[in-house]
Amino acid sequence: MGALRPDGFHDLTTVYQAVGLYDEVTIERADALTVTVEGPGADLVPLDATNLAARAVVLLAERSGNDPRVAVHLRKGIPVAGGCAGGSADAAAALVGCDALWGALQTRDQLARCAAELGSDVPFSLHGGTALGTGRGERLTPVLGQGSYSWVLALSDLGLSTPAVYDELDRQRETGPVGVVSDPSEVLAALRSGDAVALGHALGNDLQPAALALAPSLRPLLEAARSAGALGAIVSGSGPTVAVLARDDGHGKALAAALERSGTCDGVRQASGPAPGARVVHA
Ligand code: C5P
Asked: Is residue 109 in a domain?
């Protein structure tokens, strides 16, 4: 993680992997731009113009000369407000969905540029798979990897705010050494050889100390994952979700059960990666 930039973002180097948790986004022509939501945590999703999917519709309409009046319906399968990039996934889906609905025929690069304007993680939600992110996370290079990885996502109802975690990192750096951009080579080597054990060892997150300072209850969760035999466990992004790597799906099931029993989290989801990015399912 690099230093705070004049534009308020941090330069970073990150390895993204998309996992198989999905939201279903339906887009239809309508008299006005509306957003409706169903599924767990739906009440926490904004329905106004601040919704990232609504912002994606407006931006693509502007860029491609189309009418933004559509009804967007989100069926949430990605945990809401958990630091799982669910809002970014919805924005990426809205971009590809509107492109198809309007026949806007935007190139992948044009959609990626819109995605980057919407949020640092939106380009990756469009891309999917496994990728190296640089800049503020919006510049992507596909990662050559093999194999599939079994993850357990341990959820917390803590409501950590991403800017607050980055602010805490800046505050910690005022009194300690300022971290340099991390070297992802160990993670990339593990992915290249498809070695889950090596990946588990290599996992790390420069934002984790800041997330733990704001949410100390994530510490016993990380410890519970390790003592239950996880190959690795880290705070995912700015948290509060903790990503736990298992040897395979059977091991993942056992880890998920152990974490639920431990009482250190508010829910678990099992998912494997890499999974594809946003795509049109029914035209
Ligand atoms: O891009 P996104 O809207 O997801 O970013 C939310 C906030 O997270 C930013 O306003 C900024 O405070 C912080 N952030 C950052 N550096 C990044 C990505 C996000 O400081 N690379």
From this structure: yes
